[in-house]
Specification:
4 helices, about 90 residues, transmembrane helix, mainly alpha
């Protein structure tokens, strides 16, 4: 089973590399992705340690950072709302 998973991972990595260089995307998209990743983490950090949302702590993990990366600052509001309504109750 591990061999099959490793094979799928290797094939998908090779296909991803092929698509990146075939479409002439270059490495500029990595800069944009990295900037969004860092700004998402900073936004969650600011909410956690400034007390903007009273008694709310949003953990820094791939799911929360990914949500903020995709949705932007409304994603932070979504996470705070979920924390206060579902988990806080």
């Amino acid at each position: 089973m591990k061999l099959i998973v490793l094979g799928v991972l290797c094939i998908s990595l090779l296909l991803l590399i092929y698509v990146v260089f075939r479409k002439k995307l270059g490495l500029g998209w990595l800069t944009v992705f990295g900037a969004h990743l860092a700004l998402s983490a900073v936004a969650i950090y600011v909410v956690n340690f400034t007390g903007l949302a009273a008694e709310t702590y949003i953990p820094l993990n791939p799911m929360t950072i990914g949500t903020v990366m995709v949705l932007g600052l409304p994603g932070v509001a979504l996470l705070i709302g979920l924390k206060l309504t579902i988990i806080g109750s």
